[in-house]
Amino acid sequence: MPRVFLAALGLAGAGAVLLATSQYGAGLSPDAVGYIGVARQLLAGQGVVGYEGQPFVIQPPLYPALLALGGWIGGLDPLQVAPLLNAWCCGAVIFLTGILCAQYRRFFPTLAPFGPAFALLSWPLFAVGVMAW
After folding, report:
1. CB of 130 within 8 A of CB of 29?
2. DSSP state, residue 100
3. CB distance 130 to 20 below 8 Å
4. Which residue has the higher pLDDT, 56 or 92?
5. Does the reported pTM lie above 0.85?
């Protein structure tokens, strides 16, 4: 499967996430508030701690660290970085799904081309992509 086609599918998925989050931003939940808080604390130089000052040890800190990195590079609030990061991740998942399916094309010749299309149309992937998770 040509990588240009896979990249186009990935861009379509990223565009869908950006379009869905363009008006109101990324969706929030209690977990998302924690991630945004940790990212803001990282930007303020307070370390990997939540709003209450307790160490952030319940969930992995990579997503808040990436939000803080995006905020540091772009001068944005982590809540503004979340849709951009999520769109990139969604596009990457679709692209990598196509790469993985291409690896197994010999075993599943009729199903391999549909893998990235199914990832693009995946409601769970899209639902996670529009939240600040």
Report:
1. no
2. H
3. yes
4. 92
5. yes
